[in-house]
Amino acid sequence: MLAAPKRTQKFAGGGLLNVGVKASAVILQGGLVMLLSGYATPARAGAGGTDLLKIAEVANMRVVGMALASVTGTAADGGATIDVEEGTYLLKNSAGVDAITVADINRTCFVVDDETVASNAAGGTRPRAGVVREVTSAGVWVEISAAASAGAPRSVWLPFAINETDTLAGTSAELVAPGAGRIGRLSVVVQKAVTTGGDVTVAVGTTAVVGLTCTIADAATKGTVVTDAPTNGDATTIVAAGDRIQIIPAAAFNTAGAVSGLLEIILK
Fold first, then answer.
1. What is the CATH number of domain 155-267?
2. What are the b/e assignments for 101-117, b being 16+ CB within 10 Å?
3. Distance CA 235, CA 237 (A)
């Protein structure tokens, strides 16, 4: 606790950050920069052979600003450094279901690459870029800062469990949407070993969510995990607060097996 006035040092100037560059990374001036496990690299979506690997990598990504110069990393992480600056910058907009519109102003947008942003996280495989401030024919003005990038995602995960009797009968688990938003990722885990497998799907009311199917293989063992995300931007993913949501095991399940899991709701 202070007993008298003092001069407190300010870190790195207003919105300016100097960070170590990831080994061999090539960062171009004017490109969006993120930290990957603490080192600077061009901003991008998650990489990996599966969506789960991409999501795991995104957890270690933080967009921090715009590159003030072009820098190439050395053979070791942190061997070179780069200045990046926070602020509101004009970036390229995506197209189709990924396009950002005026309805997204003051909402989070997500990284496609080091100059392009999208309206959605593509099932959690894209890191947060920043906050949309304006949308024009020239692109999207995005407020970029370490704080905006580190903000908690606005998702809730609804647990469900389908016992063996219901799994074999094709009886759905019933959930209720906690708020307005859209269906994100479905993750299913085998609780009791399956003899004949089948699909687990999702419906909002009685309307199937397009593109969202977790297929449990024949002879799947306890602990087997399957995950999937719906068709990006499809209208069937939209939910309102209080909507009925069904998690539906196919009638193909036979002889033995039970499942449980989580359903992501991405809130508006």
1. 2.60.120.40
2. eeebeeebbbbbbbbbb
3. 5
